[in-house]
Amino acid sequence: MKKQLAFYVDAERCIGCFTCAMACKNQYHQENGVVWRNVYDLKDGVYPHRERAFYSLACNHCENPTCLNVCPVQAYTKREEDGIVVHHQDKCIGCGNCIRSCPYGAPRYNPVAKRAEKCSMCWQRIDQGLKPACVQACPVEALRLVDLAELDQTGLTRFPPGFPRFPELNPSVRFRAPRQPKFVRREGV
Amino acid sequence: MSSFELPLVVFTVLAQAAVGTVLVSSLRQHATAGPAGEVRKEWTAALAVLALGLAASLLHLGHPLGAPTALKHLGAAWLSREVAGTGLFLVLAAAGAYTARQKVGAGLAWAACLVGLLALFSMGMTYAPPSFPALNNALPALFFLLTALVLGAGLAARFTPEAGQPLVRAILGTSLVVSLVAHLAAPCIWLSGSTVMAATGQAWIASPLYWGRIVIGLAVPLLVLARTRSVPNWLFVLLLAGELLGRMVFFAATVHTAANLGGLY
Asked: What number of C-beta contacts closer than 8 Å exist between A and B?
């Protein structure tokens, strides 16, 4: 398998602090309302407990990206060396087709530039030997950067409940499921 | 899809009306006997409707001057194919309007029909992405074909002589019945689907625009047709209003998978 960088989302460790999302915002200063990474609270149907669990999600840099396939002006490319899906904003004409088509809602519309944009996996930082801003900022190491070609995926899952299942896109993200809470009951009460 | 996307509503509906008009006109001219009707005016009307739609389509682009670059990804992007197909159809419709005498030449007419249908299919594929489970299938193409036939028959009726009215009336009546059944059945079927698909069904059924489309664009025209022997000229306005309302529902009330991240898909 070729090198494919991916986000490793450890829902067992994630405390929902939004530091990853804030780090992304600090790094790129997106316009108001434009969010490349967000933290999603698992809803009751997926995680029916009083404790909460979270997924930190951004672009999944899919093996077969919908954004790249539907873009009429070829504003998306997938890097050969690490599989990062890059959006070339200078080519974008703001048709919104990628925004409509990505099932994970990764591309967003920038109302000032009037073009789409999305998580770049901080490829410029990666090329300098640094971690993506979100990964570096996570205080509990719940968000990591991994290479799927080398990752031991034992105990991990591709499509946990709460994350839409699109195997034909093959999103480059792996999850560790949230811990199930322990119930302690006293006998005879 | 969260917003009405009005430029896309206008573009898709008018482009489909133009394709439908050329289809019905070609059928009347070359598949039936009798006088062809006011063919040149008819194709010019289709051309004008299409040109208006194409102008509207530019308004949804952040950078309209970059529109020609949308042809760059014909190998994979259905949107590029939609642009190419619609552009080629425009050229063929213009050639038909320019060269028409008693009729448009059979070769040109059928070529325009074929290219128009391919453009329509590309539109259907463009709006059937994986992000909308309710529409990630053949439904958009079916809806668009029905829009083309309904509006095409409605517009072509204005240019059709008395002898050709039964054909146009039959096309319009059949398309209206099929469209009514399809538009009533689709949201009901979605209700038994996955979470996002069911949410789409609920959103469509709860939308006043959806019921406006059913009543104004389908039920009332069917009642009018049942009481008249030819298609009244004013009926096209009603049909167009219904299709525009329906397309607004299509864009605004269809639920995106990303709307329920962290929940059941």
From this structure: 120
